[in-house]
Please model this.
Amino acid sequence: MTLDFLQSFEFFSGVPDSQLRALCDYLMDTYGTDPQHHIIAANEGNAAALAAGYHLATGKTPVVYLQNSGLGNIVNPVASLLNEKVYGIPCLFIVGWRGEPGVHDEPQHIFQGEITLDLLEALDIPAFVISKETTLEQVMAQLEAWQGLFAQGRQAAFVVRKGALEYHKRSYANGQRMSREEAIRQILRVSGDDPVVSTTGKASRELYELRTAQGQGHEHDFLTVGSMGHSSSIALGIALQRPERRVWCLDGDGAALMHLGAMALIGASQPANFIHIILNNTAHESVGGMPTVSGTVDLTAVARACGYSNAVSVETEEQLKLELSRAGQGLHMIEVKCALGARADLGRPTTSAEENKLAFMEHLSKN
Model:
């Protein structure tokens, strides 16, 4: 189905989703990142609050887009800000339905997919499911039926099944040369027997395949396949309980920005055994490549302000090797500026999330 139904709206904010790739590419072609019309938010709750500000300033209905995994991040602003029992702020949500029952998906999406419609119902948000068979006329009729609801300060949601929306794919790139996979390879050369916590998306997939290619087991690594933005907090929890072990966190720029407050907590906790790597390609690559704002943020300055004793940024393999040789003496952050892109044949972990957890815990307990 085409995206012509969006032409009656003037403001969009959200977090990119592979299920909504067509929508995301359409918005980039139509508005780019013009903040008066389109803001790629740090997290979904941030997008809902931006939408509220837009309505307060214009009286119009905004659109917030998100993967269903981000519904948890909007519960608070929906229930305590947008809801008609509070401020009554209208909003149209467009939700990518990962883990839809009966449709094969990754383990982190299964339970979220099962509860998506129930969660929207609990939030008093009427939902209409868009599939490949849904026509533009049906969507326009549903929008018309919701106009009275929006006028009452309520919200509604289109829940989008895989492949339901149509638009040509955009290509995204940046000016960096070092690949993320090469950066991870360099890190593994020095991490040795240390535990590694990796963020959701392609970084964890590349870490898994590099271990396999090098004939290593996967017990060293905790692959944070879901809960985007929380890998650094998981790693901090481990580092504080196991101060004798050097702990590595392989983070992404979009993930770090999503819950930036975690860096303040890490800095305040001062774990001397913590090495925070932020693999920065200025993009939400795992869901299509739409940009993050990390290209305009000095992450090393943020880390220093949060209390990291060491914070550096590197762009080349030589610089990365040098900084890795210095890591491990005090709280350390290394921003690795890397290219956007991954191998076309990049696979996914073949072990289950529970198997990963148990092997990782056993490895931690050995020393």
Remarks:
- The first helix runs from residue 21 to 30.
- The longest strand covers residues 274-280.
- The chain has a mean pLDDT of 96.
- The radius of gyration is 21 Å.
